Model the fold of this input.
Amino acid sequence: MYYIVLFILLPACILADETATYSFSPPVGSGSGSSYALSGEGRITAVRVWEQYNSYIDGIQIRHGFIWSRVAGYSSGTPLEIELREDEAIIQISGKYAHYVRSLIFITNQGRTLYAGQPYGHSFNMYPEHPQAELLFISGRYHGALTAVAAHWGAPGSIAGNSTRH
Done:
């Protein structure tokens, strides 16, 4: 009986520990249009953002490892991009929104930032609930340009971070 309890509780404890760092920052923006989830395997290694001059965020793309996600929204013009260094992670997303997402600021654990868009509208600030967590993927909606963005946080390699999301 002792061994049965041990074999049942041990995996449950391991699973609870791995998912304990997962948190979710709910979407901001109007939320109209088609949904997207920019996820992948491994850590985020780069972010690209396309902005409409003096206006809103046209599109966004995330790279996990060496593989770029599809673009959510439009990808016209030259993107703004941050390529993360070894052991660098995104630990905060801030910005402004009205109907569309107007600006995005990605902040890393090494103090670097990627700023895109114009500071107009309602402010938001997204960050993980756990200090060892980092950005795993983003989701939201787009109708031409981005109308909503949400953040999913966790420890790299955790069950929540490696599951398939569509």
